[in-house]
User: Fold this.
Amino acid sequence: MRVTFWVRAVVLGVCVGVLGSTAASAETASPGTTIRVDGHLQLAPGLDIFRVQATAAQPAGAAVTGNFTGTGEVRSGPVDIPIPLSLAGPVTCLNVQGSTASFLYTVDSAQPKFLGDLVEHRTSVLFTITNGAGGAPSRIGFFGPLPTAFFHGCGPIGTPFVFDGTAHFTR
Assistant:
């Protein structure tokens, strides 16, 4: 089976997330914190590999609520057949620091089925998005999926990939 760019990007994203993270510290969002994200993780400018959609909010004194959906495709096999990939779940942690937002979501559903059997209801993924400034592109990184117990908060991690889309954060 041939490993594709997408699979390599996922492995790279996990590795960069590990190296770029100083451990996800136990941080919570400030009162009134919200995020709204809709765009594509790009392996290189113009090469969309995974669509990221997330909304989350944490009103003063309340728990974080929100949802994440990610979609893309894996290409593999001798005839290079695309296999749809999707991940979704509730956002459980939110952190906004200036032009950077991080959020943690628990994987509640995953496709294809073999992936769902491995990750559903037992793993989480940490994402960080930094809005570009001065003409620089926005950036995105992720860490996981890993067992949910591994995460202790949702502090920012490295953002090695270009993010093409919109990302709005409020505090």
Notes: Confidence is low (pLDDT under 50) at residues 1-27. Residues 4 and 75 are 6 Å apart (CA to CA). The chain has one domain: 5-170. Strands lie at 33-42, 48-58, 65-76, 81-97, 100-106, 109-111, 123-130, 138-147, 161-170.
